[in-house]
Design a protein that fits this description.
This protein has four helices and two strands; from the N terminus they run ααβααβ. By secondary structure, the protein is mainly alpha-helical. Strands 1-2 form a two-stranded parallel ribbon. The mean pLDDT is 77.
Length: 82
């Protein structure tokens, strides 16, 4: 159905399959620094490859997977260095 949907990031990160089931015009992620500030830990420091199997920061990985290639607006009032 057309409309605006608001969901929590924890639910959204666990239900990537549900969110991918339809096309979305835009993802708006508030408090983005809380999700993505440590995603760099999923990259191997020696090779630079992204570790899709790392158990830490699973929410960041799931949301990253979901939004790849999508229109995304990341909102934060906290400076981050990524």
């Amino acid at each position: 159905e057309p409309g605006i949907y608001i969901i929590g990031r924890e639910y959204g990160s666990r239900r990537v399959d549900l969110l991918r089931s339809k096309p979305w015009d835009l993802f708006v992620i508030d408090e983005a620094h809380e999700i993505f500030s440590n995603i760099f830990n999923r990259f191997n420091s020696k090779t630079g490859n992204y570790n899709t199997n790392a158990k830490q920061y699973q929410t960041a990985h799931n949301i990253r997977t979901l939004i790849l290639g999508q229109k995304v607006l990341l909102l934060t009032a906290t400076p981050i260095q990524n």
